[in-house]
Amino acid sequence: MTVPYHHQVATSKPHLILKLLFRWKGSVWKSVLVEYLIWIVSYFIIYAIYRYALPKYNQKSLEEFIRFCDKSLGFIPLNFMLSFFVTTVVNRWTVMFTNLGLIDNVALFTAQYVQGDDARGRMFRRNIVRYCCLAHAILLRDVSMKIRRRFPTIDSMVPAGFMMPHELEKYESIKNRYNKSWVPLNWALSLLNIAKEEGRVDSEYLEYAVATEIRNLRANMITIWQHDWVSIPVLYPQVVFAATYIYFILALFARQFIIPQDQLSGEVDLHFPIISSITFIIYVGWMKVAMALLNPFGEDDDDFDCNFLLDRNLTVLFPELD
Amino acid sequence: MTVPYHHQVATSKPHLILKLLFRWKGSVWKSVLVEYLIWIVSYFIIYAIYRYALPKYNQKSLEEFIRFCDKSLGFIPLNFMLSFFVTTVVNRWTVMFTNLGLIDNVALFTAQYVQGDDARGRMFRRNIVRYCCLAHAILLRDVSMKIRRRFPTIDSMVPAGFMMPHELEKYESIKNRYNKSWVPLNWALSLLNIAKEEGRVDSEYLEYAVATEIRNLRANMITIWQHDWVSIPVLYPQVVFAATYIYFILALFARQFIIPQDQLSGEVDLHFPIISSITFIIYVGWMKVAMALLNPFGEDDDDFDCNFLLDRNLTVLFPELD
Amino acid sequence: MTVPYHHQVATSKPHLILKLLFRWKGSVWKSVLVEYLIWIVSYFIIYAIYRYALPKYNQKSLEEFIRFCDKSLGFIPLNFMLSFFVTTVVNRWTVMFTNLGLIDNVALFTAQYVQGDDARGRMFRRNIVRYCCLAHAILLRDVSMKIRRRFPTIDSMVPAGFMMPHELEKYESIKNRYNKSWVPLNWALSLLNIAKEEGRVDSEYLEYAVATEIRNLRANMITIWQHDWVSIPVLYPQVVFAATYIYFILALFARQFIIPQDQLSGEVDLHFPIISSITFIIYVGWMKVAMALLNPFGEDDDDFDCNFLLDRNLTVLFPELD
Amino acid sequence: MTVPYHHQVATSKPHLILKLLFRWKGSVWKSVLVEYLIWIVSYFIIYAIYRYALPKYNQKSLEEFIRFCDKSLGFIPLNFMLSFFVTTVVNRWTVMFTNLGLIDNVALFTAQYVQGDDARGRMFRRNIVRYCCLAHAILLRDVSMKIRRRFPTIDSMVPAGFMMPHELEKYESIKNRYNKSWVPLNWALSLLNIAKEEGRVDSEYLEYAVATEIRNLRANMITIWQHDWVSIPVLYPQVVFAATYIYFILALFARQFIIPQDQLSGEVDLHFPIISSITFIIYVGWMKVAMALLNPFGEDDDDFDCNFLLDRNLTVLFPELD
Amino acid sequence: MTVPYHHQVATSKPHLILKLLFRWKGSVWKSVLVEYLIWIVSYFIIYAIYRYALPKYNQKSLEEFIRFCDKSLGFIPLNFMLSFFVTTVVNRWTVMFTNLGLIDNVALFTAQYVQGDDARGRMFRRNIVRYCCLAHAILLRDVSMKIRRRFPTIDSMVPAGFMMPHELEKYESIKNRYNKSWVPLNWALSLLNIAKEEGRVDSEYLEYAVATEIRNLRANMITIWQHDWVSIPVLYPQVVFAATYIYFILALFARQFIIPQDQLSGEVDLHFPIISSITFIIYVGWMKVAMALLNPFGEDDDDFDCNFLLDRNLTVLFPELD
């Protein structure tokens, strides 16, 4: 579920921001915790080896290596890579999120233009909208982990009310190895056609108005499917994530405090790498933004709440139709 | 209310810019004031401890720590994070602001295509547009703090003229735990249908023209609702705001002037951190841009003036209909 | 008037670029002139005080301050702020400029679908298009300084041929404290309706085709109005412009040449701050780009030439209608 | 084929990221391998010359040159060029990818509005959709290497089922030296016209609905064609790629370890350029992102899988039509 | 002509990239050649003056100035300015390029909906499409240098087959000092109207379908015209190009090698400014990207090939109409 916090930032007062910073669910703190623990433990292993295990001569060599790493770390363009990659991923995420598919427009026009206060009229309206919900659910099953877990098989959609048993049969009689989410949309259009022929839709003009909304829903669904099919080429995230990890592996050495030669050298020996820990959390947290948004249909705290969406579509829309 | 200043920048003459800089309402100065006071007081507490409370030996250690902080501060990529995050937030804000929902197009076509100079004709036109205003107001109640305060309950919309008492009853008879802003739009479409049947709309083609505008309004409203529902994942603002705060907490130490050892060292001892204050105001002010725009329906000086919008829609549009 | 220079950059030959650089009208040189003069005079006042007015001891303190400023100037992220802010402003400017509202499409379809070669047919076509021009002019009066000066009152539109005296009366009889630019568009639609009833428009379908173009014009006009209503929150330009000004106030000190102690120090003493002048012109010129584009309806050399637009719309379109 | 990895980033757990990093197919490691081997071999050739082949005096000169290169390398703005160029290329790639052309909407409306359960009705529907697939395939032949190899001549489309032999004749009778992908779309529209005349399409309104979808497909196809016709001006990738290559040619010298003068100098002598290797992989990998996306219809691992698309369009759509 | 190179980057193999780098036509090497020669000659003039013409004392002053320039060069934010400006220009270029105006959609629908296999039917179809091509050509004459040279007067369009002599007369009888590209579009619509009246277009609905495509072409043309009318305010390119030129004028001094005082100083004296030459080519090449794209209708190697477009439109479309 996306973690809502808009009301916390209604004003930009400092105390509200503090509350925002100290959330746990979906937070940057939670997402970097494991990595940070691994990093800090590794840091202290190297710390112990350097200070207590190494003979004097090797210590010197290691110090030279530490200084060299420290100087060279700046060559890795982490800033640029992370900021541009995050922006690219956010843009992609925005496209997906604006195409998530609210079925409201279909429902608005179905309610209006498929007429008849009798049971049959209601049946037409309800089924057209339900078929859209069903198509949506079938698509999301292929895209979203959460929906896949909720509906491990197509059969499991029947008890949830998305599908009737006889529809399931009809659905499964169509053999095709690709996603079949278009099938219920065809049913919806056929139903609309029958309603038209029974005189429940005033004219083909209004029929087309409803059909256009169904087409728009399909366009939304195809956009989602396309973005699931063609990911950002794998070498882009690879190079960015690899740069981040390598940076901090080098930092394990580069950020070691060198034992001050004498009191006057002015070098500080803090033992605990406080600044490097902060840097670690900030950079890795930043990378996690990209990761969390790369597959917004996954299972992170902040991924799209497709279950909510499916339920809302069914619940909001049905009263509209009566 | 968004603070208007366009006429102040009609030309880019220097004196106009100065006037722009010294505004208070909605200004960067106002927004960073509290944070700056806290920061400067903390600065002088550390200043006092360092200079007067610490024994010589600890002073030396602190100085080492100060130098270390000063050197390490550059590792926090504040520039990159703030500039990219602000851009992302501005883009999102732009989408919301272009979908705020002006009901003008609905009114234009209603005025034109729902005919009849008699009272009933006027009633049709006025009610269709009023229902759109009502739907808009119901949505904004869920999104905007200010509208929520203006209309703490749905009932309070009746005296404001958005709703009739009998409509309120009808509205509340619909049970649904999600936002019901679609209800008045359905009413508007039904009314349009009746007008059509009474021969006040020339053809279904023109009816559809009006209906399309109502649908577009709904699409606008859904965009607003979606952006309220799915925020930018919380870890993105968290990591940016945390970086900013941590930067300035470290700066409390890093920017302390070290007591010059001797007259020749060339180190300056200004006591008051003038440059750091400037930096603080600029960076925190920049962060406040992101905060102010993150929830544009909040209560900052510069948030959208939804009350103005609702009132304007009602006022501008009604004469158009007669 | 936007300053045209496209034909100067037809190829990227060096001599063409030089010609481009040495233009004066709308140029960066013209826009930074006043600020630069103030800055350079201030620079030499401080120069004189430092070199001739201060006693030896204070001179030393000032030098320390100069060195400190020089070192600290890098903390102000001018690069990032200006580049991102300019990009945001350019995007906004682009949206405004593509919505400036050419009435060509209205004219194209009016000419085609409102038929009749007699005087009355011409009257219909001319008036529909003139009303659109009028609506456009009324809107621009509220937005653009130049149009406001050209038409200080609504009355002054009558002699300019945008409005007939009897239309002025009708216009002023509508009481409304908001912008009334929608009024002439309603007139245009009414006229279209009458033409339809007189059989001069073949069908409601074609009537709607014309009406849709009028609606699109209105959508353009509303976009302009919205962008005038909701500016970029004032704290964003404030923080950017303040950063720029503060940077150069500090530079007044930081860029002073320190009197070389002895011949061997290797410090240069150029007296005239040539590099800093260049930096000043570049940075402040960059800031001026943002300023000039922030309100493109102002009176800078490069702001939109709305007068040209209004005249062109009237002139280009009328022959098209006969 | 685009390499799918979305399910690997369903959550942002560390072990999933490691799995992502160690993929080979389409990976950054695979793409930089050849270049890296050439670079590292060159590095060791220079290493050998410097250490073993050069006389003392020339060694000194070379060391000066190495130090000079090391200092100057920072003048090449690789960060800026790569990050902005990659973003520009990614945006272009996104446009192409969203216009790849799914024929689903054509099929949806053809299935619905071209009626008749008899063989002739099915023939109409199947052929209209097949003609769209054919037009798509002809276009992609000109754009994509893979499709060109699959269909080296137009003739080879006949056995693949995209074309009938008599259609091939008709197609080749049209003489034109430009891409003829519009021909089958004309056929599709003609067929639609005939279906209309036979009463299989209810009205011209619905015929237009189908025709609009065919037009949209053509718009998609033209977008692809346009992007293939007008590349990003060649000097942009040239300057970026040249900068990257020159950077690493200089790095061959700049990153040589200088033989420490004495033990106390503190200079490290690692022999193997570990940090520079990392930098090489990251920067060249980053450049490869731009290269891989510059022509997404090429033969990289991550280029669009046009074969899949063509097959899917044929397979998914045909059951929909029966 | 845009220089095609897509097939060269079908894969990202190293040897392909080398081939890309060593192209000459439209290349960065060609575009910076003149500037580079001027720069390098100036460099050696200063070199000669510094080393051979100046007395010892002035040499010392110059060296101080060189060191000062070297230090100060970093104050010019060339990286930021070029990268953001290039991105802005690329975006603008993309808009122009996607609105170049392919007349395909007009032809597709004209071929379909303007019926009749006789000569008169063909005449209608051919003329409607030819008028669109003509309108396009008249617009491009005003925008593109190349088209202007091809058609120095409107008369010269007659032999090229875009216009008939009697049409030229009609065209010139319309007095108007603005671009008259709308005239042939009006003719096309009139012709369409006549075809409708003769029963060659089935209904006004289909007439409108064709008219809509003509309107879309006009919208494309207006977009091109608008972008030609309103350039990016001249002070933006001025400030960017000025910064680049000033940078390299300063570099003439800053990048001089200082004559090493003694053998031990470790300063290198390469005589030829190899790194600075590389930097020059990269930065000025980058600037040339902006220049080449600023006016894509100019005469650079990489500007839009409008002649090709006009010819293609005439050639591709005519067979489609028979």
Automatic annotation (TrEMBL), chains A, B, C, D, E:
UniProt GO MF annotations: chloride channel activity
Spans traversing the lipid bilayer: 36-54, 75-95, 239-258, 270-286
Localisation: Cell membrane; Membrane
Pfam families on file: Bestrophin
Acyltransferase among keywords: no
Record carries keyword NADP: no
Superkingdom: Eukaryota
Single GO cellular component term: chloride channel complex
Membrane protein topology class: Multi-pass membrane protein
InterPro entries xref list: Bestrophin (IPR000615), Bestrophin-like (IPR021134)
Keyword entries, A-Z: Cell membrane, Chloride, Chloride channel, Ion channel, Ion transport, Membrane, Transmembrane, Transmembrane helix, Transport
Family assignment from sequence similarity: Belongs to the anion channel-forming bestrophin (TC 1.A.46) family. Calcium-sensitive chloride channel subfamily.
Purpose of the protein: Forms chloride channels.
Protein name stated in the entry: Bestrophin homolog
